[in-house]
Amino acid sequence: IRQRMDPHQTRTGQNNVDSSRTNCVDQVIQMIMHAKKNIFIKDQYLFDRNVVLALVRAKKHSPNLDIRVLLEPMIRANPKGLPNLLYLDVLAANGIHIRWKRLITSHGNIHQEYHMKTMSADGLSVISGSANKDQTTMYGAFREEQLEVWDAEATKVHDDVFNSHWSNEESDPFEGYEFEVPYALKGFNG
Fold first, then answer.
1. Model-level pTM?
2. b vs e for 73-85, b when ≥16 Cβ sit within 10 Å of the residue's Cβ?
3. Is-contact 23 100, C-beta < 8 A?
4. Residue 92: its pLDDT value, please?
């Protein structure tokens, strides 16, 4: 009897609090480096340097790669947007599109925060779980899990929500910093 194979593959990612297992960042960077058409990221945080470098490399390698990032606006931070602001200028300068998810929408919906942690590529695969794309989460400062699913139908559900949140009435474009960077602060290259 021939066994029927499930066409949908999954892979788990997990970080332990003692950093003994940290493969969430591997999944994220592998997805970025293998993307051919698009990468859509919805996250509360994006300031892990290695994830940012991977996004920049992917965009330089494939200039037509559509990379869009939708982030928590961090409206209570001072300055507004920190810590997400750390590398957004680098991403924007490399042609990566960034928007802030509105917490109060034009329809009157109020969101406490934008606590998403998802990413998709090429309409074929999606990562979802509890791991933010920041340097502490990606390397085991917290217990985090995520699931990578290779399934066009599941990815379409993610991408449809992403595109509705990306619309002008659901988000605002990142238009640069609203503060002055202190003199002699170390740059992206260290």
1. 0.86
2. bbeeeeeebeebb
3. no
4. 95
